[in-house]
């Protein structure tokens, strides 16, 4: 069972790390994990202590990979297994605790910039791709050779996109190949002009072209994937791609294709529903879903200001990976907002689901900022950094005297008229920190503490010196529906 706010210590010892996965043959370790490139990365930086981060499904190979790298480089390797949040993010905190001078990340990655400067090398993997079958599938779904199309893939198939484009370019005139947005080496010069960077990928667009003109052909996934277990990387592509452009997925093993237009429409409809739930909400729970991605503190402050400007109360919760039992301890919350990396915010929900919806930061922005473009015109932003000042997508809050705050709004869920915010944003940041009391004394006011103090359940009270000391006795054993000392029904 899970405790009130986190998992008990015993659960960490008894819990399985996840699906172990199939072990890689020793002869294929160098190719699969690109050990020669990783060894060169360690030697160039002259690192003596290096952290190796593996997802759960690759932990079976971690020992062999670490031993091979130690033998090759002479440096000490530390294996980072279970992460506090998502394995797709660089665990800079774990690397610092090990005193590592660099980190090597294996497996799928969100490629979000880390919160602290640390040399990082990414090994995305190399899944086998049947180029001939994928080329035939592309030709079947794109009969017009002049139509602009972008080649996309899951991270493990990115190595095969250029070879696939070589087979298609003799016929297709406007073919664009995307590549993972890996961080550039320190001291290297960025190419001119810099390619467009979106969805964790780089798009070398020609001058005067925009990404909204292109259709998409995605290589990756499997034929058995459903909406419930859809990969978060594919989800952010379907949500952020131009709705009027075709989007096809292709299984790299069989060449089986699927039109994702219907599934993308369902995802957008689900997100529009979550925006309406956020507009109806009075109390918002902000879940800290990352501590290693850059600007997470600034993003948390931005979300709190959004909720405050819309007349909603917000509470910050640090619970690690959110699970239904953890969030069920906060029934006062109407919605939760997960502040995480793009893949973590769109990760599939566990079986059973949450008792309150879990939103992405972009959905709270659309619900609380009256200056945000209406549905259908605003882009769906998967990274919270795109909402912050300095981003081309940032939309500042209207001034307090703007008419946008008084615009009538009707809930599409309840059909009732939503009242305007009780108060509007103030330019004086200190007016909310202190409250004047009738006794002419100033005291710090905490609306969050006063609200939670009104709960019927308060938890254990210390009561030091008020409770007599007694010996420990054995309690009842069993489950609540049938304890061992109760007779059968």
Notes on the structure:
The chain has 489 residues and is an alpha/beta fold. The chain has helices spanning 9-14, 29-32, 35-45, 62-73, 92-97, 131-141, 161-168, 232-240, 261-280, 296-309, 324-327, 342-345, 361-368, 447-452; strands at 49-53, 76-80, 102-106, 120-123, 149-153, 175-177, 179-180, 196-198, 201-203, 215-219, 247-250, 257-259, 283-288, 313-317, 335-339, 358-359, 409-410, 417-418, 434-436, 442-444, 478-479, 482-483. The strands form seven sheets. The chain has a five-stranded mixed β-sheet. Helix 6 (131-141) packs across helix 7 (161-168) and helix 9 packs across helix 13. It is globular and about 80 Å long.
Produce the secondary structure layout:
Layout: H1 9-14, H2 29-32, H3 35-45, E1 49-53, H4 62-73, E2 76-80, H5 92-97, E3 102-106, E4 120-123, H6 131-141, E5 149-153, H7 161-168, E6 175-177, E7 179-180, E8 196-198, E9 201-203, E10 215-219, H8 232-240, E11 247-250, E12 257-259, H9 261-280, E13 283-288, H10 296-309, E14 313-317, H11 324-327, E15 335-339, H12 342-345, E16 358-359, H13 361-368, E17 409-410, E18 417-418, E19 434-436, E20 442-444, H14 447-452, E21 478-479, E22 482-483
Parallel strand pairs: 1-2, 1-3, 3-4, 5-6, 5-10, 10-11, 13-14, 13-15, 15-16
Antiparallel strand pairs: 7-9, 8-9, 11-12, 17-18, 19-20, 21-22
């Amino acid at each position: 069972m899970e405790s009130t706010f986190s998992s008990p210590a015993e659960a960490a010892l008894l819990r399985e790390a996840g699906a172990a996965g199939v072990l890689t043959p020793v002869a294929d370790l160098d190719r699969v994990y690109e050990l020669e490139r990783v060894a060169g990365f360690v030697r160039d930086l002259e690192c003596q202590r290096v952290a190796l981060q593996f997802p759960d499904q690759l932990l079976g190979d971690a020992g062999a990979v670490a031993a091979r790298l130690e033998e090759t480089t002479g440096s000490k390797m530390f294996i980072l297994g279970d992460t506090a949040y998502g394995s797709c993010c660089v665990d800079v905190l774990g690397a610092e605790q090990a005193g590592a001078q660099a980190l090597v990340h294996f497996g799928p990655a969100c490629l979000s910039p880390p919160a602290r400067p640390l040399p990082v090398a990414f090994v995305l993997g190399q899944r086998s791709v049947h180029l001939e079958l994928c080329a035939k599938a592309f030709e079947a779904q794109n009969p017009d050779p002049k139509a602009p199309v972008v080649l996309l893939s899951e991270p493990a198939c990115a190595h095969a996109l250029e070879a696939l484009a070589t087979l298609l370019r003799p016929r297709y005139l406007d073919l664009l190949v995307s590549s993972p947005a890996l961080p550039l080496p320190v001291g290297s010069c960025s190419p001119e002009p810099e390619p467009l960077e979106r969805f964790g990928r780089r798009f070398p667009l020609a001058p005067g072209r925009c990404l909204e003109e292109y259709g998409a052909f995605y290589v990756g996934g499997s034929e058995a994937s459903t909406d419930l277990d859809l990969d978060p990387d594919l989800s952010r592509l379907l949500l952020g791609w131009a709705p009027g452009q075709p989007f096809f997925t292709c299984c790299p093993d069989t060449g089986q294709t699927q039109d994702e237009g219907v599934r993308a429409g369902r995802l957008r409809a689900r997100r529009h529903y979550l925006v309406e739930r956020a507009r109806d909400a009075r109390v918002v729970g902000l879940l800290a879903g990352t501590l290693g991605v850059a600007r997470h503190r600034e993003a948390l402050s931005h979300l709190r200001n959004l909720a405050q400007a819309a007349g909603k109360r917000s509470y910050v919760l640090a619970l690690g990976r959110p699970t239904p039992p953890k969030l069920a301890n906060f029934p006062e919350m109407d919605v939760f907002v997960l502040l995480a990396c793009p893949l973590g915010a769109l990760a599939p929900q566990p079986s059973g689901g949450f008792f309150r919806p879990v939103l992405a930061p972009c959905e709270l922005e659309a619900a609380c900022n009256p200056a945000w473009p209406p549905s259908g015109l605003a882009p769906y932003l998967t990274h919270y950094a795109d909402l912050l000042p300095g981003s081309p997508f940032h939309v500042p809050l209207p001034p307090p005297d703007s008419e946008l705050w008084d615009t009538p709004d009707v809930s599409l869920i309840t059909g009732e008229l939503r009242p305007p915010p009780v108060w509007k944003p103030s330019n004086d940041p200190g007016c909310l920190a202190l409250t004047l009391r009738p006794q002419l004394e100033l005291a710090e006011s905490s609306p969050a503490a006063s609200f939670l103090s009104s709960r019927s359940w308060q938890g254990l009270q210390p009561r030091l010196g008020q409770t007599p000391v007694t010996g420990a006795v054995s309690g009842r054993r069993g489950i609540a529906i049938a304890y061992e000392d109760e007779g059968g029904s």
